[in-house]
């Protein structure tokens, strides 16, 4: 692991998620740019001293020298956005598979370069777009792609949070880097959570965004990046979308929600009650779909662990990415064809797509033109 | 009453709403442009034969000839949009107060002319923007205006319906006129329900829309008017809004919903559970506000009839417009100053505003410019 | 109307409910045992002076002397429980139909005597067990009786309220008579709301309770009647029930809820969201049944007024009793057979059943025996 | 681990829960009474061959012979009820700490003997009453014990499931042992899930049940144990409870729910939405309490892993028992006093209490007496 030292939120989540299914062991790490923090963090994680490194460069180099059976199989990179690209490139080049926190890189160019390197290296690459790890999101995709709701017409996706409603960068470490353009990139709220919403739509519907009309807002005085935004999106096949994301929606926690309406039916899913999905019909009662029931698809069942009514949550969704990554990796190591059930995790292409989204949104927000085509 | 013959939906609702509080009696009517239908309808309503009229012109003229104590006090006009203006003008000119179903007229010019006539005549005028009749909507307005949520930053308002998801104009009388530009006006879905959503925001926040960026869609082949649309709106005070309305959102009934976030808190209300409102706070638990509790404002209490937990609905909201209109009318007849609690019903200015909204949305949807200022 | 003077809750609800559909006009009343209050109340209701009476005896006698076309058709009795029996008997004996608030009488013996008088007189009699007036309750009954959920096994019915959680009899007029055995009868909470819950089960399932095991509690010090209770009930056909009712469940409003499970499926309905019912199945998704959809039964449709998504509430449910009573009465007056759709309102037999329930519950609560058979 | 071979539900959950926080490694196991199954299961779990045992006796004896630094620290027993007592006793006697699935044993006598052995041995003992591991349940306990809702008056606890609504013992391995008295004990549904409900009340309120009045039912023909039941319970301090549990409540998943009302307020929590709790008040709005907010107690925060809005579920609750057990064990090994935050996991006394509950319920169900005192 690179990053995720003591006090990190997302690093701890990565470790729990990786642990959960007993497929992955943490064997080494560089948990901070500050060596003493890295060492202290590694000790807390019961790592032997010689596998705790002072820099990610050192770690990648040293691990690459170990015999194949002993060295790490892959690296998890859980640093802020501006420290994604270099360690990822270096790991790939040294022959390691990579799991990378999103957004994939700081710039679109880096993302494309990384995509190229993944292709060239033939290594596995996973991007932790967590929300597509939920079994119900996979169920939604399955149902939409097989035509249950007909041709998609209308998509509403929203991602309201409230935790940045005031100027808390001075006291909240999580907030500090997110509102700092040097560490976050061109977009704040839209990069941090808007990309999740954008990814969710393309994942579930299989439709690509064509052009969009966006307005980004900065409500908290003195903030340098957007903390709120909304847009109209035109998708392939004449489907129309509205995407909103906000981090000043006071009192909201993490209420990512998607609603899709087609010619035959509709569906609705909200991340805060992830085990439930609604199917809506013109002429019969709305149905409450619940995880781990017999009527669920094979894809959803593969990504569930407990029987109906025993709620699974965010950590399990996260763990699904790691588990599918690990199962694919095992298959590769055993020379087998990985199952299509396991191959379903977000990769570098979703990362490139996310960076294209950020570029386009920022361009649109600065433009007087109504529609801006998706940047390529 | 003008319109609302046998089989009419909204006419029946108007009558129930007017009846409900025992303040208003139906004394005469012209219920259809077809005299035999008008007569049959009037008989079903227990009207004497001589108060059932063959045309609205006849009704207004004949009633005006009756002694003041016998003639109707006011007229309710519940016809399709294109038959709003003329009877309303005629009634005002003959000295009758008017209750008019929304949208106020077929064109903005008519709306302004009607506004002028209301002013000149000194007559009472109510527009049945039903949703502002809910006690909880009045509570929301009270709380926002007194600053409970701070300065308004972000508004989401949505109005999804699904009943026009397919081409049903041939079999559904309610659908037929709504999708017909000759009877509905320039906008379909946006005129029918988008105006409600627009009105709701301005009513609750007291903020005027400045400019907007809209896209109207027609999903059902062959339909002449929009059946769906979405827009970004800029309000006074740098508040930002998203408004969506759809009649092809399959499986949705009448799910008008508003969420408002300010600098201190947020609120949420949905028409389908009208007795509940959510207050959201950055640092303490979300509160579930419920009608008819001791903590409700005087304005909300004035518009409720039953104790907590005895749900009131759409008809009661509708009836609040009629009751407040009637109480104001009584005060006028008794030469008293009407209470501010009673004076709170939508009037012709809200109607003009709605027509301005329709004009602006249609213009924006046809424009390549990102922002179109609200038409005056 | 007898009772329901200024400040009365249930009297006002009766009037609104009777008004709502335009089938019933209030023509006379004795609104209080205190003549001046009766007169003041009648004037507020726009009644002519000569139809406002000083006592119910006077009213019944005077109205009976009027020509048939002028006198009242029926009387609504909305007094506290101890003033139900005598005016109801007197009205029946003078040839008037009767609508009576529940519980039917002060004692079981009175209830039986009233039942006999209804039978002898051939007059119509309605008891306002409001909750069975909801369209969704009628839908539930329709579905259970036609076998949708199979043979009924398990019933949970609960009726929590919180408004009597402290000693408020001194300040709350509604509370004062309910906690007074002289006005309420043998049971407090169980008589006031437990009877509604009991009635709801027998109405929906068509099953009669056979025996029960109850515990009544009085939590508020100094109170003379129960303010809470719970019981196990055995129904015909080996169905088992649990019934709870409480008026000290702090923070609850009027949360009457029923859940029924059969051999094939289950259903759930809650009064506070009355337009929704849940159907539960062993092997397919839970369904959300909503009023005014095309899939609803004829019985439910007959008792609805607005399209889907336009919520109807308590007043409309109440009005359904009055409307069905009025339609039946009209049919009788016209010499026609009333439709089975209209004949579906609670009558004196439900009242007798409620009094039997109260007697049995009180006996059981005082007994060491586990099971007490329903009193006959 | 003892039990939990391939195909086991609860064994897999135990392993995931133990893995989750990186505090515990699976080092050995006997996963089945059938050696070949044990070996196959152990291999799937990446265990070395020499730590996969053919019988639990062998495992305990062999592990005890290993040097302290190499042998297992504790054993998890996840077998059916009738194979709880002997391995637990043997493990304690050989110096191993124990985690045991609930109910603790097959009979009350065994439970008491085990309690004695735990006391004598000084070993740690955890019973996986999972539901008390939820952070929100700990929050509920904290709030009730510090008096937020005043003196407890009324408790409703319910645990409806539907999966045993028909005779599925032949096809469902999970069902087969639960409905078999030889493996389950004296009670079916009440032992399996009723004990969870019972434990939840005593945990949250700190009140002991004094006596109860129960009816157990067997709805599915041919079944030997109860599949449904309900009871009235009297608690210390004159609090009154209703407990229902059912496995024939068709369409229910795992809807454990508790509502508690005191003299000042009430609370409600449902396992299927575990991150939300409702606080109810007589004179102010209901509050929606959500995990991982700043207003949560230290005890709840200690048992949470993700920020607000990132749902945690059943596995995390389960993991809290393991984590607290592991943290306590670490403190013991380091000679430190374990924190009171960590010591909060169910132990053998809760197991004894559960067996007393089962004995009492069965006795009550077979009795004609109304109240049966809790068996000691």
UniProtKB/TrEMBL annotation, chains A, B, C, D:
GO MF annotation terms: nucleotide binding
InterPro entries in the cross-refs: Gfo/Idh/MocA-like_OxRdtase_N, Gfo/Idh/MocA_oxidoreduct, GFO_IDH_MocA-like_dom, NAD(P)-bd_dom_sf
Superkingdom field: Bacteria
Pfam families with a match to the protein in the record: GFO_IDH_MocA, GFO_IDH_MocA_C3
Limits of the GFO/IDH/MocA-like oxidoreductase domain: 138-268
Residue ranges of every copy of the Gfo/Idh/MocA-like oxidoreductase N-terminal domain listed in the record: 61-127
Name of the protein this chain belongs to: Predicted dehydrogenase
Organism: Parabacteroides chartae
Taxonomic lineage of the native organism: Bacteria, Pseudomonadati, Bacteroidota, Bacteroidia, Bacteroidales
């Amino acid at each position: 692991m690179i990053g995720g030292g003591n006090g990190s939120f997302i690093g701890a989540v990565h470790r729990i998620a990786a642990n959960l299914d007993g497929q992955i062991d943490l064997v080494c790490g560089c948990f901070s740019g500050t060596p003493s923090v890295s060492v202290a963090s590694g000790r807390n994680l019961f790592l032997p001293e010689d596998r705790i490194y002072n820099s990610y460069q050192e770690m990648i180099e040293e691990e690459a020298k170990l015999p194949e059976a002993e060295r790490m199989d892959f690296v998890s990179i859980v640093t802020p956005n501006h420290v994604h690209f270099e360690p990822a490139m270096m790991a790939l080049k040294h022959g390691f598979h990579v799991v990378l926190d999103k957004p994939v890189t700081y710039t679109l160019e880096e993302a494309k370069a990384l995509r190229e390197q993944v292709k060239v290296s033939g290594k596995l690459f996973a991007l932790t777009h967590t929300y597509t790890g939920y079994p119900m999101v996979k169920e939604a995709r399955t149902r939409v792609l097989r035509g249950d709701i007909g041709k998609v017409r209308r998509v509403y996706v929203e991602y309201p949070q409230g935790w940045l409603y005031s100027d808390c960068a001075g006291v909240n470490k999580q907030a500090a880097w997110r509102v700092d353009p040097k560490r976050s990139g061109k977009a704040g709220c839209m990069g941090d959570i808007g990309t999740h919403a954008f990814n969710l739509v393309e994942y579930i519907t299989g439709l690509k965004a064509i052009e969009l009309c966006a307005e980004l807002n900065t409500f908290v005085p003195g903030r340098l990046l957007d903390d709120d935004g909304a847009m109209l999106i035109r998708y392939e096949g004449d489907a129309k979308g509205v995407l909103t994301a906000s981090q000043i929606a006071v009192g909201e926690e993490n209420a990512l929600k998607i609603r899709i309406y087609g010619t035959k039916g509709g569906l609705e899913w909200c991340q805060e009650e992830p085990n439930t999905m609604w199917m809506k019909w013109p002429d019969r009662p709305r149905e409450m779909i619940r995880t781990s029931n017999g009527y669920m698809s094979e894809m959803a069942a593969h990504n569930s662990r407990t029987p109906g009514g025993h709620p699974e949550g965010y950590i399990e969704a996260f763990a699904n990415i790691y588990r599918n990554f690990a199962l694919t990796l095992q298959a590769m190591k055993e020379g087998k064809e990985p199952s299509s059930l396991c191959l379903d995790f977000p990769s570098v292409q979703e990362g490139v797509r996310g960076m294209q989204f950020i570029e386009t949104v920022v361009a649109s927000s600065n433009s007087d033109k109504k529609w801006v085509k998706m940047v390529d």
